[in-house]
């Protein structure tokens, strides 16, 4: 132990004697370790941390499957109430099942009405998750039945923000959607279900009619496996239940299956590829930093060859010398790790503050920080880093020839060390090229994505959402009148060019579908009817949002409940269901025969509803005045800045209904930016890491070439004395540096060809082996390497032969 402490004290003194070397090495390591710590803190919180439920490994998600649906819904379809109740009654593998849906709630009774996002849930959801309230109780089966008194469970955040964290709120009444609810419980702060934006939970309370419905699929289902039951066993039993339901209800369950996924896997599925790519990227940056510091250590070992020779002559073994040098490298890495930890704190705050709001609702995002696991990771990385970059220099330095090493003025044999330094530089170049290719592919992908036309004109358009409570707007006429009056009042505002409304806006992340039959065409088997997305819109919606009318007409003020039902379809629906035909005048039928036929009166252009990268799907638009809908989004096209119109719209809404809040106020350009954020954020982070790698690689090759020039000053002087021209010396030095760079570029291109394939799922309209990106990045890196070589090469051409010959 005493010898280890002696090594530490001696190593610290040696590092303090070389402050320039120590500072550069510590900063390089701090950058690499800090970046790794910051990204690992995200990986730890989002991917590795257990879900905040009892025995989370036993929790599963249950999806319905249907091969007839769109690709996005084929394996991820919500359950119908009747199917869910059958699953609950017939299974023997689950302790409990619970289901939930989404809704908005107008909270009134305070200074300002407020729109909240909440979840109607079945009573089994809380027992399934295994959570207990902080105050009061959760929803019970008695609450979750038709006719029961309305109750609500509050989130911890809402309890603190709106009700002053008063425990006595339990048992009191609050007004939601103009209806009185009794607060029965408050959940703990870590309960963020299904996402962090959820503010309250109310009973689902199926009506008798709803409990018998099998065609309405809107329930998200969670289940808890019984102890000892595997996911495969549960899947086998649910497959049997699905087959039984297909036989019992062929009209509604034909082709419908059941798919089980672990809750944790479902939660992290979309983020896992991007986070793993980023984690790999920061590890590569750390390796480049290690290679740079190893180069510095090799250069420093050359300067210390006489000191090491003396230690060996006095009896120090090779292992003793290696241990001393490794101690110094570990001291460097631990110091760099401590500084990197501070950089990581800043980086985590920057990362959390820089992400768009639609990514802050990700599981675990609000818990990102430096916990014990992250600190242990940083310590482990620091120690491993010290060994990685210190081992090769230590082994090289310990190979001491006493006869040569003890000569006064002798620099020792450096050929092997120079070769090792050259290989390290080639390694840096290869890794830098991999990172730059990855960043280049992401950049090209995002640029192509942002060039996609969304199918409407997003400029100068503001969107404002509102949800009209059923208690006050209890029929379609009241809803229609409110929306019509609001449109008139907003249209009268100065600077407003046009106003429209739709129930579900493009780029808002939500949707709804309906089944139909085409009059005059053979009807498919029951349960296999064609399906289309549908929207309820006002007559001016298409013109306000700039959706082009391709054929026929849009809705008019005459398309009301007392007029024949009409519909407008998009180009994709016209192409899929009326190939080579004119769809105008054709009629769509209700498969259940409960609604009259709907005549198609117009065809509009395709719109990107989910994101710029989505594929065209069939869309059916219906007049809002005919189908109703209490959830509506106003779209307002203005002459100037659309955001400036928000306060005026809010004022007009309150003038019509003082208890009606507005929410989700965004420009359409903001909505488009939010949908592309999951691609843009990894691009920015990967770009930053690639830029750091490029700088480190340039510094590395510059350092090796500059050090080589210093070592060869005597040789260069002799060459110039014998008649070598400046261009010969320049060519000699540049050729040496570019040889290392070329080897690195070759290895990097091969590695990139294989490694970037893991990014294929993150790219849009760009191949993972895109030749333009590969060649452009290689050219950029070669240019940087050439510039890094030219600086010391020019200095070599200015060597004075007379001085150089006296160099020794």
Sum up the overall morphology in one term: elongated
Q: What structural class is derived from the secondary structure elements? A: alpha+beta
Let me know the average pLDDT. 85
Distance between the amino and carboxyl termini: 43 Å
What's the β-strand tally?
A: 23
Radius of gyration: 34 Å
The percent range for helix content is 40-55%
Strand content: 15-25%
Unreliable spans: 408-413
Q: Please identify the oligomeric state.
A: single chain
Number of helices: 25
* Major sheet details: 8 strands, mixed
Summarize the SSE layout with pairings.
Elements (H helix, E strand, L loop, with lengths): L1 H16 L1 H30 L10 E7 L15 H10 L3 E7 L2 E6 L5 E8 L2 H6 L5 E2 L14 E4 L1 H8 L9 E4 L2 E8 L13 E4 L4 H4 L8 E6 L5 H18 L1 H4 L3 E6 H6 L3 H32 L1 H9 L4 H37 L17 H26 L4 H4 L9 H36 L10 E7 L8 H16 L4 E7 L10 E3 L1 E2 L12 E7 L3 H5 L3 E4 L13 E5 H7 L9 E3 L8 E7 L14 E5 H4 L3 E8 L7 H11 L6 E5 H44 L1 H9 L4 H30 L15 H27 L3 H5 L3
Parallel strand pairs: 4-9, 6-8, 16-21, 18-20
Antiparallel strand pairs: 1-10, 1-11, 2-10, 3-4, 3-7, 5-8, 6-9, 7-8, 12-22, 12-23, 13-22, 14-16, 15-19, 17-20, 18-21, 19-20
Write a brief structural summary.
With 808 residues, the chain is α+β, with helices and mostly antiparallel strands. 50% of the residues lie in helices and 15% in strands.
């Amino acid at each position: 132990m005493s010898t280890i402490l002696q090594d530490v004290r001696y190593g610290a003194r040696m590092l303090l004697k070389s402050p320039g070397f120590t500072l550069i090495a510590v900063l390089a390591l701090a950058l690499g370790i800090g970046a790794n710590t910051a990204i690992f803190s995200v990986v730890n919180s989002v991917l590795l941390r257990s879900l905040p439920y009892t025995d989370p490994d036993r929790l599963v998600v249950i999806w319905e499957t249907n091969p007839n649906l769109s690709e996005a819904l084929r394996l991820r379809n919500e359950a119908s109430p009747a199917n869910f109740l059958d699953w609950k009654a017939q299974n023997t593998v689950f302790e409990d099942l619970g289901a939930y849906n989404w809704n908005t709630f107008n909270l009134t009774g305070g200074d300002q009405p407020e729109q909240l996002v909440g979840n109607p849930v079945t009573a089994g959801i809380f027992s399934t998750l295994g959570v207990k309230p902080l105050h009061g109780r959760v929803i019970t089966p008695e609450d979750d039945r038709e006719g029961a008194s309305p109750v609500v469970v509050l989130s911890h955040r809402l309890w603190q923000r709106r009700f002053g964290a008063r425990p006595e709120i339990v048992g009191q009444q609050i007004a939601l959607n103009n209806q009185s609810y009794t607060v029965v419980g408050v959940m703990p702060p870590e309960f963020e279900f299904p996402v962090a934006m959820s503010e309250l939970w109310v009973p689902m309370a199926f009506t008798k009619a709803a409990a018998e419905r099998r065609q309405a699929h809107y329930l998200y289902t969670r289940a808890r496996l019984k102890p000892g039951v595997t996911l495969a066993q549960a899947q086998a039993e649910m497959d049997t239940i699905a087959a039984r339901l297909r036989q019992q209800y062929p009209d509604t369950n034909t082709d419908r299956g059941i798919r089980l996924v672990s809750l944790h896997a479902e939660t992290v599925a979309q983020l896992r590829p991007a986070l793993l790519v980023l984690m790999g990227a920061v590890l590569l940056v750390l390796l480049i930093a290690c290679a740079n510091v190893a180069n510095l250590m090799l250069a420093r070992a050359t300067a210390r060859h006489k000191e090491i020779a003396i230690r060996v002559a006095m009896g120090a073994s090779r292992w003793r010398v290696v241990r001393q040098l490794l101690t110094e490298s570990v001291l460097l890495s631990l110091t760099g790790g401590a500084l990197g930890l501070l950089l990581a704190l800043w980086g985590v705050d920057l990362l959390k503050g820089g992400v768009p709001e639609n990514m802050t609702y990700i599981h675990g995002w609000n818990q990102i920080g430096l916990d014990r696991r992250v600190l242990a990771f940083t310590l482990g990385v620091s120690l491993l880093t010290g060994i990685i970059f210190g081992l090769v220099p230590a082994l090289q330095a310990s190979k001491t020839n006493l006869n040569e090493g003890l000569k006064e003025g002798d620099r020792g044999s450096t050929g092997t060390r120079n070769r090792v330094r050259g290989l390290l530089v080639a390694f840096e170049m290869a890794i830098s090229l991999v990172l730059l290719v990855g960043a280049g592919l992401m950049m090209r992908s995002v640029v192509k994505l942002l060039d996609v036309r969304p199918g409407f004109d997003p400029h100068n358009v503001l969107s404002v959402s509102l949800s009209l409570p059923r208690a006050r707007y209890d029929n379609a006429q009241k809803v229609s009148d409110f929306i019509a009056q609001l449109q008139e009042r907003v249209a009268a505002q100065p600077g407003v060019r046009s106003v429209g409304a739709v129930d579900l806006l493009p780029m808002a992340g939500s949707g709804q579908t309906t089944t139909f039959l085409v009059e005059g065409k053979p009807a498919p088997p029951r349960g296999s009817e064609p399906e289309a997305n549908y929207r309820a819109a006002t007559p001016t919606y298409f013109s306000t949002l700039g959706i082009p009318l391709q054929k026929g007409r849009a809705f008019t003020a005459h398309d009301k409940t007392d007029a024949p039902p009409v519909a407008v379809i998009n180009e994709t629906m016209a192409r899929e269901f009326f190939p080579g035909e004119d769809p105008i005048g054709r009629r769509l039928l209700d498969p259940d025969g409960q609604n009259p036929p709907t005549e198609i009166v117009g065809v509009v252009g395709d719109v990107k509803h989910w994101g710029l990268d989505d594929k065209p799907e069939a869309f059916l638009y219906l007049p809002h005045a005919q189908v109703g809908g209490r959830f509506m989004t106003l779209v307002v096209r203005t002459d100037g800045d659309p955001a400036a119109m928000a306060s005026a719209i809010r004022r007009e809404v309150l003038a019509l209904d003082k208890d009606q809040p507005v929410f989700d106020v965004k420009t359409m350009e903001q909505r488009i930016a939010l949908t592309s954020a999951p691609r843009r954020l990894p691009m920015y982070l990967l770009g930053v890491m690639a830029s750091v790698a490029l700088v480190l690689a340039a510094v590395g090759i510059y350092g090796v070439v500059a050090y080589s020039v210093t070592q060869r000053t005597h040789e260069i002087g002799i060459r110039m004395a014998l008649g070598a021209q400046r261009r010969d010396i320049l060519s000699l030095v540049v050729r040496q540096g570019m040889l290392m760079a070329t080897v690195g570029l070759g290895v990097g291109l091969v590695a990139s060809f294989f490694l970037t394939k893991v990014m294929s799922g993150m790219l849009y309209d760009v191949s993972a082996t895109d030749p333009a990106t590969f060649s452009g990045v290689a050219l950029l890196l070669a240019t940087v390497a050439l510039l890094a070589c030219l600086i010391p090469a020019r200095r070599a051409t200015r060597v004075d032969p007379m001085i150089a010959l006296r160099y020794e």
